[in-house]
């Protein structure tokens, strides 16, 4: 695909499809306090204008996951930084999502044979962002399927899922959702 406008349009379409799948099948208990983020970059993205995301993330509304806003480029700094950092290690890994952390969810992720890595925010150097440093720390041997932090002072513990395509990432979230139906998180 050579036309940048067409590539941006296709990225938004894929992201919207993934959002629809999540709205239909995601367990709301996976949504973090500030919303579940989902972002997808165009090929070669290097800045926020090249990463599409769900504005405001996915939130729990009346017991169901709902997009808090439209899919658009440059609307979510958090997921943009996660995606762009992962792309520095593997340019094909252009999609990421965030989920609420629990040990039960990590056990389910591992049972699905997804590659899972973690980092300790207490080891973060003072001059760098936790988001950038943590993702980079987990990607040194290649971008894993999942990376999560072990918790920091005053910060919500988040699981980050990676993939080449938003539908693939949303399908992983749906598989996780299907396994937590009768589990207390």
Radius of gyration: 15 Å
Number of domains: 1
Structural class: alpha+beta
CATH fourth-tier homologous superfamily: Class II aldolase/adducin N-terminal domain
Provide the CATH top-level class: Alpha Beta
What would the CATH topology be?
L-fuculose-1-phosphate Aldolase
The largest beta-sheet arranges its strands as: 5-2-1-6-9-8-7
Q: Assign the CATH architecture.
A: 3-Layer(aba) Sandwich
Give start-end ranges of low-pLDDT stretches. Answer: none
> How far apart are the first and last residues' alpha carbons, in Å?
43 Å
Task: Output the helix-strand order.
Answer: HEEEEEHEHEHEEH
Fold and architecture overview:
The protein is α+β, with helices and mostly antiparallel strands and 185 residues long. The chain has a single domain, classed as L-fuculose-1-phosphate Aldolase (3-Layer(aba) Sandwich), CATH 3.40.225.10. It contains five helices and nine strands, in the order αβββββαβαβαββα. Strands 5-2-1-6-9-8-7 form a seven-stranded mixed beta sheet, with helices on both faces. It has a two-stranded antiparallel sheet with strand order 3-4. It is globular and about 45 Å long. The mean pLDDT is 91.
């Amino acid at each position: 695909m050579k036309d940048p406008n067409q590539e941006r349009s296709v990225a938004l379409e894929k992201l919207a499809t993934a959002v629809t799948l999540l709205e239909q099948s995601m367990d709301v208990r996976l949504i973090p306090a500030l919303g579940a983020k989902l972002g997808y970059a165009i090929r070669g993205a290097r800045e926020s204008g090249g990463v599409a995301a769900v504005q405001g993330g996915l939130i729990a509304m009346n017991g169901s996951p709902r997009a808090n806003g439209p899919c658009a480029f440059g609307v979510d700094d958090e997921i943009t930084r996660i995606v762009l950092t992962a792309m520095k290690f593997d340019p094909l890994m252009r999609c990421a999502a965030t989920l609420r952390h629990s040990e039960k969810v990590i056990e389910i992720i591992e049972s699905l044979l997804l590659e899972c890595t973690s980092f300790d925010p207490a080891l973060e150097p003072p001059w760098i962002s936790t988001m950038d440093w943590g993702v980079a720390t987990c990607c040194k041997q290649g971008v894993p399927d999942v990376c999560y932090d072990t918790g920091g002072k005053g910060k919500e513990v988040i699981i980050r899922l990676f993939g080449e395509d938003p539908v693939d990432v949303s399908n992983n979230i749906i598989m996780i959702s299907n396994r937590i139906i009768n589990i207390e998180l």
